[in-house]
Task: structure prediction
Amino acid sequence: MHFPNLKPNYYNMKTFVFLVTTVAFVSSVTQAYDPDPLQDICVAVDDSNAAVFVNGKICKDPNLVTADDFFHSGLDKPSNITSRLGTKVSTVFVNQLPGLNSMGIALARIDFGPYGVNPPHEHPRASEIFHVVEGTLYAGFILSNPGDPNQEHKLFSKILRKGDAFVFPRGLIHFQMNMEETNAVAFASFGSQNPGVVTLAGSLFGSEPPVFPGVFAKAFQIPEEMVMKLQSLPWIGNN
Result:
C-alpha cells in the first residue's frame, strides 16, 4: 500500500508564514485612521483631569447628551485677524464640537487678509479638502522625499477662486496665500476629529528648548548666527 508523503513541506511552511505575516501587517496599516464608532454616539467630555488617557475622548453618558453637543455656530462670521501672517484659522475639531468624537471628521474656517498666508504646515492624522468661498488663493502641497536622490521635490499647486476645491493628502506639507488686496475665505474639511497641525517654521525655530543651532545650520546651509536669530523671533500661530 502506498502512503502519501506526510512530511511537512519546508517551502510551503515558509510561504504560509510569509502570507500570515503580510496579512497581519496589511491589517495593521488599514487601521491607521480614526476607528469606526462602536455605538451610535460617543460625545466627548473634558478629560483633561482624567486619570486614564484614551485614544480619542471619553464618552459622555448617553442619557445626558443633548442636541447642543452636535451643534456649532458662528462659521458665517469673519474672524478677527491679528496674526502677522494675515490669516486666522477657526477650528471645529472635537475640542470645539464634542459630538465629533469617534466620527472621523472635522472642519475649519480660514480667513485671509490682503496677501495673507496660511504658512507651510502638515496634518499628521488627516487628509484635507479645501474649498474657497471668496477670493483668489494660491495653494499647493509638496510630495515626500523622492526615491531617486537626483530628483527634485514635486510641487502641486493651483490658483483657486470662488467655488474651487483642492485636496491636500495626509501628512504632506501644504500652504495657501491670498493673491489679492481684498479679504478671502475658505473652509477645510478633514478626515479626523483631531487632524493635528505641525507648522514648519514655528515647530523648527520656536521649540522649547531650542534645537542646537548647528543642526539647522547644516540642514539649511546657513550660518549658525542666522539660525539663532530665527530662534529668537516670536513664532506666533494663526489659530
Remarks:
- The radius of gyration is 24 Å.
